[in-house]
Amino acid sequence: MYVISGPSGAGKGAICAGLAEGSNIMLSVSMTTRAPRVHEKEGISYFFTDRERFEKTIAEGGFFEYAEIYDEYYGTPKAPVLEQLEKGVDVILEIDVNGAAQTKNIVPDAVLIFIMPPSPEELRRRIESRGTETPERIAQRLARAESEISQIEKYDYCVINDKLKKAISSVFTIMRAEKLLGGDLKGRILSLNDMTAIRRASKLRVSEGAEKYLKSYKQ
Ligand code: 5GP
Description:
- By secondary structure, this protein is an alpha/beta fold.
- It folds into two domains: 2-24 and 90-218, P-loop containing nucleotide triphosphate hydrolases (Rossmann fold); 29-88, Guanylate Kinase phosphate binding domain (2-Layer Sandwich).
- Helix content is 47%, strand content 17%.
- The chain has helices at 12-20, 51-59, 78-87, 97-106, 120-129, 135-149, 164-182, 192-203, 210-218, and strands spanning 2-5, 26-27, 31-32, 47-48, 63-69, 72-77, 91-94, 111-116, 157-160.
- The strands form two sheets. Strands 2-7-1-8-9 form a five-stranded parallel sheet, sandwiched between helices. Strands 4-3-6-5 form a four-stranded mixed sheet.
- β5 and β6 (72-77) form a beta hairpin.
- α1 (12-20) packs across α7 and α7 (164-182) crosses α8.
- The longest helix has 19 residues, at 164-182.
- It is globular and about 55 Å long.
- The chain starts with a strand and ends with a helix.
- 32% of the residues are buried.
- The mean pLDDT is 91.
C-alpha cells in the first residue's frame, strides 16, 4: 500500500492519474463533503456526499481512515481498499498528513510518499490558476501547505514535482525499489535496472535529508 500526500496544488492528482494509467494499481476514491470543482466527476475524483451521510458512514465503521480538513470531511472507504489488498493489488491512497499517520498505524509497511511543490511561488500559481478557489480558500490552502511540509519527516520518501513526467517516474522507481527491498534479496541476482531503481529510490528517502527538502521549498 502506498500513501501519497502533499500540499494542495503540489500535483498529487496528476501524479496519481499518471501512475494508474496503463498499470493495475488501484487508486482509492475518497468520499468528501466538499463541493465538486468544475472538472471533477462523481465516483472518479471523489464520492461527493453530505455531512449526514458521511457521519453515518463513520458511525458504521465504513472508513479506513478519515480527517476533517478546511471544515470538510474527507475519508477513504474501507471495503474497496481491503478487497484489493487481499487480492494483492497495489493500492494508492491520496490523502492528507493525518490520514497518512492513521494508515501507517493500521498498515505498518505502507510506504508514505510526500509530493513537494518546487517553490511557494509555484504552489500559489498552481492553486490560483485552478480559478475555482476564493481568495480565503487560497490563503487557507497556502497556510496549510506550510504545516504539511513541516511534517515531512513522517514520510519515507519525498518527490519534488517540478516536471510531471519525472515525478511519476520517480514514484514508479520508489515502488519498484520497495518491492525488491520488501522481498528476500538473499541469493537473488539483481538486474542492472533493479539496482538502478534501488539506488535512485534511496536518494529520495526523507531520512537522507529532510532539511534538503525543506530548504528547497523555502528558496
Ligand atoms: P482537495 O480538496 O484539494 O481535493 O483535498 C484537500 C486535502 O484532502 C488534500 O490534502 C487531500 O490529499 C486530502 N484528502 C483527500 N481525500 C482524503 C481522504 O480520504 N482522507 C484524508 N485523510 N485526506 C484526504
